[in-house]
Write a structure and sequence with these properties.
Elements (H helix, E strand, L loop, with lengths): L2 H7 L1 H12 L1 H11 L6 H15 L7 H13 L8 H17 L1 H12 L6 H15 L7 H14 L10
Length: about 160
C-alpha cells in the first residue's frame, strides 16, 4: 500500500490533520497577539526557511507556487515587523538553494529554521506558519507533512502533524 493510501486509510490521522487545519484561524489570532514578540532576525530567517521548505516539499517549486507563497508571506500581518521585500528576498534565496542543490538547500533551510531552537514560542509559531503555508492551497500533501515533521525534529519540539506508523 502506498504512503498516500496509508495516510488516507487512517481515519485518525486524517481527522488529526483536519483538526490542525481547523485551528489555523485560532493560530493566526494567537500569532497576531504575539507578533511584537517576534521581531528578531532569527525568527524572520526561520519563518522564511520554513516557507521555502514547505514550498519545495514535493521536489519542485513552480513560478506560480513561488508567487503564491511570496504573496502570502509578504501580505501576512503576522510578519509586518519585517520589510516585505526583505522577506521575499530571503524566501526566493532559500527557494533558489533548494532548486539548485536540493541536499545543500535543505541543510541550509533547516539551519535557518533552527535559529529559533530553544525558543519554544517562536519555534511553535514557525511551525504553525509553515502548516498554514502548506495548507494555502487547501490540501496538506504527504510531502508537506514530512517537511513540517522534519522542521519539528530540527527544532526539538514534538511533531505537530501525525503520520501513520
Amino acid at each position: 500500500m502506498s504512503f498516500l493510501n496509508k495516510l488516507l486509510s487512517s481515519g485518525h490521522t486524517v481527522t488529526r490533520l483536519m483538526d490542525l487545519v481547523d485551528k489555523a484561524p485560532q493560530w493566526r489570532s494567537q500569532l497576531l497577539s504575539k507578533k511584537n514578540e517576534f521581531t528578531s532576525g532569527a525568527f524572520r530567517d526561520a519563518v522564511m526557511g520554513m516557507c521555502a521548505l514547505v514550498a519545495a516539499a514535493d521536489g519542485t517549486i513552480t513560478a506560480a507556487e513561488r508567487a503564491q507563497v511570496a504573496g502570502l508571506i509578504t501580505g501576512d500581518s503576522v510578519l509586518d515587523n519585517f520589510p516585505a521585500e526583505q522577506l521575499r528576498t530571503l524566501f526566493d534565496g532559500n527557494c533558489d538553494r533548494l532548486v539548485q542543490d536540493p541536499a545543500f538547500g535543505r541543510a541550509h533551510v533547516l539551519q535557518q529554521i533552527t535559529k529559533v531552537a530553544g525558543k519554544p514560542e517562536q519555534a511553535r509559531a514557525v511551525v504553525q506558519i509553515g502548516i498554514m503555508i502548506a495548507n494555502a492551497d487547501g490540501t496538506l500533501s504527504p510531502a508537506e507533512v514530512h517537511a513540517v515533521r522534519d522542521a519539528c525534529a530540527a527544532l526539538g519540539i514534538p511533531p505537530m502533524l501525525e503520520l501513520p506508523r
